[in-house]
Amino acid sequence: MTADAATAGPVTAGPVTAGPATAKTAASEPQPFEYAVLRVIPRVDRGEAINAGILLYCRPLNYLRALVELDADRLLALDPAADVPAIGRALDAIVGICAQDPGAGQAGLQDIGRRFGWLTAPRSTVVQAGPVHTGLTSDPDAEAERLLLSLVRRPA
Fold first, then answer.
1. pTM of the model
2. I need a labelling partner for 122 at 20 to 30 A (CA). Which of 34, 45, 47, 138 fits?
3. Residues sharing a CB contact under 8 Å with residue 108, sequence separation 6 or more, in sequence order
4. Is the Cβ–Cβ distance between 112 and 57 less than 8 Å?
Protein backbone atom coordinates (compact mmCIF):
# COMPACT_ATOMS: atom_id res chain seq x y z
CA MET A 1 0.00 0.00 0.00
CA THR A 2 1.20 3.50 -0.65
CA ALA A 3 0.01 4.86 2.68
CA ASP A 4 0.42 3.64 6.24
CA ALA A 5 -2.57 1.41 6.93
CA ALA A 6 -2.73 2.60 10.53
CA THR A 7 -3.56 6.15 9.47
CA ALA A 8 -7.11 7.37 9.14
CA GLY A 9 -8.58 8.08 5.74
CA PRO A 10 -8.36 6.33 2.40
CA VAL A 11 -5.58 3.83 1.85
CA THR A 12 -4.60 3.48 -1.78
CA ALA A 13 -2.81 0.71 -3.60
CA GLY A 14 -1.60 2.26 -6.81
CA PRO A 15 -3.17 1.85 -10.20
CA VAL A 16 -1.38 -0.61 -12.44
CA THR A 17 -1.93 -1.68 -16.03
CA ALA A 18 -0.98 -5.15 -17.16
CA GLY A 19 -0.16 -6.84 -20.39
CA PRO A 20 2.68 -6.38 -22.84
CA ALA A 21 4.41 -3.01 -22.87
CA THR A 22 3.03 -2.52 -26.38
CA ALA A 23 -0.60 -2.98 -25.30
CA LYS A 24 -2.77 -0.15 -26.55
CA THR A 25 -4.47 1.92 -23.88
CA ALA A 26 -6.69 3.83 -26.30
CA ALA A 27 -8.47 2.88 -29.51
CA SER A 28 -10.12 4.87 -32.25
CA GLU A 29 -13.26 2.69 -32.15
CA PRO A 30 -15.03 1.75 -28.91
CA GLN A 31 -14.05 -1.73 -27.74
CA PRO A 32 -15.99 -4.08 -25.45
CA PHE A 33 -14.76 -4.34 -21.88
CA GLU A 34 -15.75 -6.10 -18.69
CA TYR A 35 -15.44 -4.79 -15.16
CA ALA A 36 -16.18 -5.80 -11.61
CA VAL A 37 -16.20 -3.86 -8.36
CA LEU A 38 -13.86 -5.14 -5.65
CA ARG A 39 -15.74 -5.29 -2.38
CA VAL A 40 -14.47 -5.66 1.17
CA ILE A 41 -16.78 -7.68 3.40
CA PRO A 42 -15.10 -7.62 6.81
CA ARG A 43 -17.64 -10.00 8.33
CA VAL A 44 -18.83 -12.39 5.68
CA ASP A 45 -21.55 -13.66 8.02
CA ARG A 46 -23.14 -10.18 8.09
CA GLY A 47 -22.78 -9.50 4.36
CA GLU A 48 -22.05 -5.78 4.82
CA ALA A 49 -19.58 -4.43 2.26
CA ILE A 50 -17.72 -1.37 1.08
CA ASN A 51 -16.48 -0.89 -2.46
CA ALA A 52 -12.67 -0.77 -2.48
CA GLY A 53 -11.66 -0.96 -6.13
CA ILE A 54 -12.41 -2.00 -9.66
CA LEU A 55 -11.07 -4.52 -12.15
CA LEU A 56 -11.26 -3.61 -15.83
CA TYR A 57 -10.52 -6.08 -18.63
CA CYS A 58 -10.55 -5.24 -22.35
CA ARG A 59 -9.61 -8.28 -24.40
CA PRO A 60 -9.27 -6.51 -27.81
CA LEU A 61 -6.72 -4.12 -26.28
CA ASN A 62 -4.98 -6.82 -24.19
CA TYR A 63 -5.70 -4.68 -21.13
CA LEU A 64 -6.21 -5.60 -17.48
CA ARG A 65 -6.08 -3.10 -14.66
CA ALA A 66 -6.96 -3.01 -10.98
CA LEU A 67 -7.50 0.28 -9.21
CA VAL A 68 -8.00 0.04 -5.46
CA GLU A 69 -8.71 2.58 -2.79
CA LEU A 70 -9.43 1.28 0.68
CA ASP A 71 -11.18 3.76 2.95
CA ALA A 72 -10.05 2.60 6.40
CA ASP A 73 -12.57 4.83 8.21
CA ARG A 74 -15.53 3.31 6.36
CA LEU A 75 -14.15 -0.19 6.85
CA LEU A 76 -13.70 0.31 10.59
CA ALA A 77 -17.23 1.74 10.82
CA LEU A 78 -18.51 -1.64 9.60
CA ASP A 79 -16.16 -3.67 11.76
CA PRO A 80 -13.96 -1.99 14.36
CA ALA A 81 -11.89 -5.18 14.58
CA ALA A 82 -11.16 -5.34 10.82
CA ASP A 83 -7.53 -6.06 10.00
CA VAL A 84 -6.91 -3.04 7.75
CA PRO A 85 -3.27 -3.91 6.91
CA ALA A 86 -4.17 -7.49 5.93
CA ILE A 87 -7.06 -6.29 3.76
CA GLY A 88 -4.73 -3.75 2.15
CA ARG A 89 -2.26 -6.54 1.36
CA ALA A 90 -5.05 -8.61 -0.23
CA LEU A 91 -5.99 -5.65 -2.44
CA ASP A 92 -2.32 -5.08 -3.30
CA ALA A 93 -2.08 -8.75 -4.31
CA ILE A 94 -4.92 -8.21 -6.80
CA VAL A 95 -3.06 -5.23 -8.26
CA GLY A 96 0.05 -7.42 -8.51
CA ILE A 97 -1.81 -10.22 -10.28
CA CYS A 98 -3.17 -7.77 -12.84
CA ALA A 99 0.32 -6.35 -13.39
CA GLN A 100 1.99 -9.77 -13.63
CA ASP A 101 4.17 -8.84 -10.68
CA PRO A 102 6.76 -11.59 -10.07
CA GLY A 103 5.58 -11.82 -6.46
CA ALA A 104 2.02 -12.59 -7.57
CA GLY A 105 2.75 -16.29 -7.90
CA GLN A 106 1.17 -18.66 -10.38
CA ALA A 107 -1.98 -16.56 -10.83
CA GLY A 108 0.11 -13.67 -12.15
CA LEU A 109 1.64 -15.89 -14.82
CA GLN A 110 -1.66 -16.70 -16.54
CA ASP A 111 -2.87 -14.86 -19.65
CA ILE A 112 -4.97 -11.80 -18.88
CA GLY A 113 -8.30 -13.45 -19.63
CA ARG A 114 -7.60 -16.22 -17.15
CA ARG A 115 -6.38 -13.71 -14.56
CA PHE A 116 -9.59 -11.70 -14.90
CA GLY A 117 -11.67 -14.87 -14.65
CA TRP A 118 -9.77 -16.06 -11.59
CA LEU A 119 -10.04 -12.67 -9.88
CA THR A 120 -13.80 -12.44 -10.52
CA ALA A 121 -14.63 -16.04 -9.54
CA PRO A 122 -17.09 -16.26 -6.63
CA ARG A 123 -15.47 -16.77 -3.24
CA SER A 124 -16.26 -16.45 0.44
CA THR A 125 -13.40 -14.23 1.53
CA VAL A 126 -13.11 -10.75 2.95
CA VAL A 127 -12.14 -9.30 -0.47
CA GLN A 128 -14.51 -10.33 -3.26
CA ALA A 129 -15.27 -9.23 -6.80
CA GLY A 130 -18.89 -8.32 -7.46
CA PRO A 131 -20.80 -9.32 -10.60
CA VAL A 132 -19.15 -8.72 -13.95
CA HIS A 133 -20.62 -5.92 -16.07
CA THR A 134 -19.86 -4.92 -19.65
CA GLY A 135 -19.52 -1.77 -21.67
CA LEU A 136 -17.76 -0.11 -24.59
CA THR A 137 -14.77 2.19 -24.37
CA SER A 138 -12.14 3.70 -26.60
CA ASP A 139 -9.98 4.63 -23.57
CA PRO A 140 -9.81 1.92 -20.89
CA ASP A 141 -7.51 4.01 -18.63
CA ALA A 142 -10.08 6.81 -18.52
CA GLU A 143 -12.91 4.29 -18.08
CA ALA A 144 -11.14 2.67 -15.12
CA GLU A 145 -10.67 6.07 -13.48
CA ARG A 146 -14.32 6.98 -14.15
CA LEU A 147 -15.52 3.72 -12.59
CA LEU A 148 -13.31 4.23 -9.55
CA LEU A 149 -14.66 7.75 -9.10
CA SER A 150 -18.31 6.78 -9.51
CA LEU A 151 -18.35 3.40 -7.72
CA VAL A 152 -15.64 3.53 -5.05
CA ARG A 153 -14.69 7.04 -3.96
CA ARG A 154 -16.87 8.92 -1.53
CA PRO A 155 -18.45 12.04 -3.00
CA ALA A 156 -16.54 15.17 -2.01
1. 0.82
2. 138
3. 96, 97, 99, 100, 101, 102, 115
4. yes
